[in-house]
Structure formats: C-alpha cells, structure tokens
Design brief:
It is a single chain. By secondary structure, this protein is an alpha/beta fold. It is built from 10 helices and 30 strands. Helices cover 20% and strands 26% of the residues.
Length: 414
C-alpha cells in the first residue's frame, strides 16, 4: 500500500443533522455509544493497510481535531500518518466551494507524497470495506477512476445520490447526480445503482482533472456534478460494487448507511440492536478502533423498589444505572439513569443525567443534558410540541419520523 494515499473529506456541515451538528462537524457526530462517524472510514483504511491519510476539514472542526489527536495519532513509523488539513485558502480567498475544490486546494499535499493512486473517500457513512479489493479491481482494469457503488431501492435513492449505469464489464456508461427519478438497474426493477461517494483515481489523472476544473468558471467544483460526468465518456471509469467486497468474519455483506438525517441516524442505531444485525461491532478480525476515555465499566445497581434491567441495548463505559429499565437503546459514555426511569428505542450520546421515574421513548439526547424527576420525552406529543420552536433549528426538534432530539446542555423539567 506504499503507493496509495488517502484523502478523507471531513468538512461536512451536516445541516440535516441539526441540532447534533450545532457545535460539531458531521464527521465528528458520535455514533453507537463509543465511536464517531469518521471512525468507520478510518478503520477501513487502517484495516486495509493504508496509513497515509489526510483528513480535510472545514466546519466546526475542533472536536474532530481532538478526536484524531487522542485516538488516531501515528508516530514512530516512517511515512505513516493520519493528519488533519484545515481549510487554509491556499489557492485564493475562498473556502472550499465543493468536494473537488477541497482536493484541488490541497494538491500540494498529494504531490509531496508521489502516490500512484489517490483514494478520495467520504467520512460520514456506516460500512465496512477492504479497500485493497477495490484497489485490485482498479488496477486490473487499468482504470483512470474507480467509483464504489451499492444497489439501493430507487425510491430511497431519489434526489439523494448519484445514479450509475454500467456495462457488462463494469465500465461506467452513464451517470446522473441526484435525479428525482433514478434509472433502475436493467432486469432489477425497483432498484438503482448509486455512488457511495468513494473514489480511487490514478494520481496524475486526478491532478489534471482538478486543475482543468478549477479553470472552468461554470463548474460547481464537485466530483458528482462535474468531475465524473466529464470523465466517464472517455471510457476509463469503472464501477466497483460493495457487494463483491468480502471481509473475514462477516456474515453479512454490502451494508452501507448514509446517516445524513436524524431519521437515518436513529435507524442506523436501531440496526445495531437487531437479533442478527447486518452491521456488527464485534468482528475481532476487523477491529473498530476509536478513542476510549479512561472510564470504569458500566455499573447496574438496584434500589429498594427496582432492579436495573437492560434488554437489546448497548451500554458504554462509565454509565451508572440505579434501578432503571433500558430497552432497545444505546447509551454513550457516562450516562446516569435513576430509580424507576424507563428508556426505550433511544440514543443517549453521552454525559446525560436522567432523574427518577422518567419516560424516554424514541429520542436522541446529546451531551450534557439533565432531565428532572418525572419528566417524559416521546410519550405525549402535545408535551413534546411545547419544547419545539420551529424557527430554531438548533433547539429541540422533531424529525419527520417522529424522533425527538434534545441538543447539548439543555435542562428539562426544572
């Protein structure tokens, strides 16, 4: 993997994830109790033996920097690094104008490493991929660009993803960015082939295409809108299907989730709690590294009235349950739930304190939230509605799917 360089696009603002992105970038949003969204792409690279990684940041990046510093530092191994690159206006006085422009403004970092191939990957999707297998496909086909793809119901892909057409050899013969009426896969009605936003370029091709794109005043400087549509008619763009990627120890394949909205974020958490989850955190042959703070194990105690009961849930280190009932929920670091409280189908991101006899259902609660005794969320729609100001996207919100989200630092019921 010495000839491979990774560029991870991690500058996303994540407006559809508000209020979770009120004070952090989308890639640094916590996930599954112990992780951040960016951890999954970084684990894919590291487990594939690729440890020359630049992480390109822009919006609200401090918590992401700290996470990379604490959990992803590489030292003592020559020519191995996982380094953040903040937006620096290297080519002018503009912030990144699109995904392609984000790489263009940092071409000097590519040129300094002399790579044969450059992986340009997103940072906010939940999946596993052995990138070596995609690189092998890319090399065998002598591709200028290889695009990772996955099959998805057309109604779910509409207006959200780039839609790909391929020939029998895996060559891209059509591409449309986020159409409202996606083309279906021939012979597979109701399904479309979508771009995962992960690309492998020949290094020289990438540099040449980005330099040409930067000179085009009509371009939006985006890979999906500008670079791919220009390149695929030349005949050297190939499509790699995630369904062909095999990882030792995995019983399911081709799990990929874009968690760009509150409902998608909640659904991905609930996927983890299924009886036979499609995405597992427990494959020792594909370890999922992150930063773990120094915390004691989770503790479950009883009171005079109640035992602590936990079912189909994940409870992170430092949590303390005192006669609480947790069902189909995920609790991040250092959460406390007191006597008689019931939490169901919910995600507590961490450092959440919940008093006695509370009822929490289908909720996402961000850090440093304190809830008073007897308070309820997700139980009474009229009571929930009183918390929500539709003009304040940074305050409590209710998703289209009925998930109530409580932002950082709130005190409820006091």
């Amino acid at each position: 993997m010495s000839g491979v360089l990774a560029m991870v696009l991690a500058g996303g603002e994540g407006t559809r994830l508000l209020p979770l992105t009120k004070s952090r970038s989308k890639p640094s949003v916590p996930f599954a109790g112990s992780y951040r969204l960016i951890d999954f792409v970084l684990n894919n690279f590291v487990n594939s033996g690729i440890i020359r990684i630049y992480v390109i940041t822009q919006y609200k990046s401090q918590s992401l920097y700290m996470h990379l510093k604490n959990g992803w530092s590489v030292s003592g191994i020559p020519n191995c690094f996982i380094d953040p690159i903040p937006a620096q206006m290297r080519t002018g006085k503009d912030w990144y104008k699109g995904t392609a422009d984000a790489i263009y403004q940092n071409l000097t970092f590519i040129e300094e490493q002399f790579p044969d191939d450059v992986c340009v990957f997103g940072s906010d999707h939940i999946y596993k991929m052995d990138i070596r297998q995609m690189l092998h496909f890319h090399t065998v086909n002598k591709a200028a660009l290889t695009v990772a793809a996955i099959r998805m119901p057309s109604e779910d892909a509409a207006g959200r993803f780039g839609i790909i057409e391929v020939d029998e050899n895996g060559r891209m013969i059509g591409f449309e960015e986020k159409p409202n009426h996606p083309k279906e896969i021939p012979g597979d009605p109701g399904f479309s082939l979508i771009s995962m936003g992960n690309y492998i370029f020949k290094s020289k091709v990438l540099c040449d295409e980005l330099q040409d794109d930067a000179l085009n005043p009509k371009s939006s400087h985006d890979f999906g809108k500008d670079i791919i549509p220009k390149m695929f008619p030349k005949g050297k763009v190939f499509v790699y299907s995630l369904s062909n990627n095999k990882i030792s120890g995995e019983t399911h394949s081709a799990y990929w989730r874009d968690v760009g909205s509150i409902d998608a974020y909640w659904n991905a958490h609930m996927d983890l709690l299924a009886d036979n989850p499609e995405f597992s955190l427990f494959n020792l042959k594909w370890p999922l590294h992150t930063f773990y703070p120094p915390l004691p194990p989770a503790s479950f105690n009883e009171t005079a009235n109640n035992h602590s009961l936990v079912a189909k849930s994940m409870i992170s280190a430092g949590c303390y349950l005192k006669g609480a009932n947790i069902v189909q929920s995920i609790l991040g670091f250092r959460c406390f739930a007191d006597d008689g409280t019931r939490i169901s189908q919910s995600v507590l991101i961490g450092d959440v304190t919940i008093g006695k006899n509370c009822r929490i259902h289908r909720a996402i609660i961000d850090r440093d939230v304190t809830i008073a005794d007897g308070f309820s969320l997700g139980i009474d729609p009229k009571a929930d509605a009183k918390l929500i100001d539709p003009n304040n996207k940074s305050g409590p919100t209710l998703s289209h799917g009925g998930i109530i989200v409580i932002p950082k630092g709130m005190r409820l019921g006091f």
